[in-house]
Structure formats: structure tokens, C-alpha cells
Amino acid sequence: MTENEVLRRTWADISLDAVEYNFRQIRAAAGPAKVMAVVKADAYGHGDRMMAPFLESVGADWFGVSNLEEALGIRESGVTKPILIFGSTPPEYAYELAKWDITQACYSLDYAKELSAAAVKLGAVLNVHLKFDTGMGRIGFVVTDDCFDTALAEAKEAVSLPGIRVTGTFTHFSVADEASEESVAYTKMQFDRFTRICAAMKAAGIDPGIRHCCNSAGLMCYPEMRLDMVRPGIILYGLYPADNEFVTSKIKLSPVMEMRTVVTMVKPLAAGSTVSYGRRYTAPEDEIIASTAVGYADGYHRLLTNRGRMIVRGQYAKVAGSVCMDQTMLEVTDIPGVKEGDRVTVFGRDGDAFISADEVAALAGTINYEVVCAMSRRVPRCYYYQGENIHNFDYLRWKEK
Ligand SMILES: *Cc1c(COP(=O)(O)O)cnc(C)c1O
């Protein structure tokens, strides 16, 4: 195999043209606000080492990740724009934060003190964004109505600590993708708490820095809430944060990832015979069964047993029997000419046929986010740009150069 070659057993085709298109839509929707491209979880399974530098090249202003290793990974891939870690980094890693100029979420007074002490020991100053919990119920200085004054007092104290510099302030919405009256009211309440705490900081002589609260749904559905920066994740990858009109009607997106596999064997199955573990599929009549090379270890969820479908030769074929670790069988009786080596689309487009990540998610009882994030390391990522296969990435054979 040459360096850029990967085994075409099961793989993901990723369109950078689609990423560029989505980014431009988002940039237009964001107005004057900066755009932080959220590339956590390996860019939602799309490969952060490719996605982050590409998004920087098309104009992303910031990057959002969940942890230090993701931040270091995208720095290594050449990203020079600021990076914010949303989650917690143990203060022992203050040196890495400082050395690689990574901004850390600061979410409680205790944590602020620990970070401050670690930074002072190093003689470094760490950039942080204060994270307020306005109703999500996870990390953040709690800004419920009862705790407003405490949150303000704690934020003030955090800001005054040596070794940390507050360059931004943020919060996160929990139901910005839901259209119900209750959810809309909740999002507005979260936004109100956030803008009030930012204003109170200002009034107390503290600069909140860059204020940001909108995830994908927030920036699409609540333009008035974009503030200084927005944090789109899922829509960069061409998927909507929810499958409802409230979000899908706002901007047009182009899906980025398609998952493929191949037919490994075709065989007749006599009426009454069974397929796969647990014998969950029994042929009602004489049928043709195609084995494919994708399984749950690739990220094709086992809940798709007897429920999912794939595309073979431009036609839909239903999953027959249990999804195995490395193989899944399809019933292809009515699809003429299926043979070993045929390309199969697990989700994505093939001719006029299309299976969305949302369809796969719905059948597996989850959300599209999980379908793309679940794509495992065993699945090479193949990148296309302007009609060319510009790069392939194989996690199993990847080595530091
Ligand atoms: C994941 C995440 C986002 C992006 O959310 P999407 O719904 O994918 O747009 C934004 N902000 C924070 C803090 C996140 O954790």
C-alpha cells in the first residue's frame, strides 16, 4: 500500500467542499459575530486533524474542544487560532496550557484557585473563559436567580486571582433546538441570566471579554443571542441539531460524511433458513443474502438489527438478522446483479438513493451526533476536495512523523 492508500473494506468519504459550504452558510448567519468551530470528539468523527486546519483556512476564528488532548492534537495539526477547552483540565497540566496557548474554561471558584496556584508556580499567565451554568446543570458558576449574587462575587474573586486572565465568558443552552413554548421560554431565561451576569460584571468593573452562548441551534434560531461569538458544531458537518422544522428551516446544509462498505459474499438462502447470531432473521421464501464488511465495531449500531437499510447498486436493501461485530447481512433478492466487491452505502448518497445519518439515528433510537461520533478508529477517513481524493487517514496505521 502506498502512504495515501487505505483498505477499502469499510470507510468514510468526507467532502471538504461540503464543510466549506456549511461554514460559509454559518459565517453569513453569524453576522458580525466571530465563529468558533467546535471540533471536539475528533470533529464529530470527521477527523479533527484534517477538519481543524481546513476550517482555519476557510475562516474559523476560534476552535472549541472538550479536553487537553484534543487541543494539543489540533495544535500539532497546525492550527494557530485560539482554542478553548470546554471541559476540565487538571491544574497539573497548566504548563501545556501555557506552552500551547490554549484557553481553558474556568467553571468554579475552587477550580479557578487551583489553576491560579499552578500558573503562579510556573510563572505563567493562563487565558480562561468563565463558564456560567445558566440552566444546563453541568459545570459552571451557578447563576440561578437565588445564586446570582454568589456567582457574581465568585466571578469577581476568580478574576482577581494571579496567574489567570479572563478573556471571555460563556454559557451553554440545553433546549435551543426545541420549538415548544416551554423550551423557547427556557432558552430565553438562560440568555437573560447570562446577559445579566455579564452586565453585572461590567458594572463591577470587570471586562467579561468575548461573550458567547450559541451552539448550532442557538445561532440558527435565536439571531438576537449571537453576542460576540457563536459555537457551531453539528451544522459544520452538515447535520441539523434536531429533526424538526424549527431548526431545519433556518439554513441549508450539505452533509459531509458518507459511510461505505463492500459486499464480501452473495449467496442464496432457502426459505426457512436463518441468518446471523440469535437467528433473528428467517427467510420467508427463497432469498438472496449479501454479506457486507461493516459491523458494530465500525460504529454501525447493533440496534439496527433487522431494522436498518443500506444502498447497493442504487437500491435500498434491508438488514437481515443481527448486526455482527464485523459483518452485516443484507437481503438483496430484488436487486439484480449484486456481486462480491460491490460498493455499499451504509449512509450517504448513491445515485438517486440517500440514507441520512438522521434515519440511521432514528432507527437506532439515538441522535445523528452519536451516529457520526460512533464511527470507530477502524474506519479510514477519505477526504475529497474539488473533485479530488486529497488525503486518506488510517487511524490504525497512523504514526507520528
Ligand atoms: C458541543 C458544544 C457546542 C456545539 O454544539 P452543537 O449542538 O454541535 O452545535 C457548543 N458549545 C459547547 C460548550 C459544547 O459543548
Give me some keywords for this one:
single chain; TIM Barrel; Lyase, Ornithine Decarboxylase, Chain A, domain 1; eight-stranded parallel beta barrel; six-stranded antiparallel beta barrel; elongated; binds pyridoxal-5'-phosphate
Report a brief summary of the structure.
With 401 residues, this protein is of the alpha/beta class.
Q: What this model shows, in words?
A:
With 401 residues, this protein is an alpha/beta fold. The protein folds into two domains: 31-236, TIM Barrel, CATH 3.20.20; 257-393, Lyase, Ornithine Decarboxylase, Chain A, domain 1 (Beta Barrel), CATH 2.40.37.10. The chain contains twelve helices and 21 strands. Strands 2-3-4-5-6-8-9-10 form an eight-stranded parallel beta barrel, surrounded by six helices. The protein has a six-stranded antiparallel β-barrel with strand order 11-14-17-16-15-18. Helix 3 packs across helix 4 (68-76) and helix 7 crosses helix 8. The chain is elongated, with a radius of gyration of 24 Å. The protein starts with 9 loop residues before the first strand and ends in an 8-residue tail after the last strand. Bound molecules: pyridoxal-5'-phosphate. Pyridoxal-5'-phosphate binds next to loops.
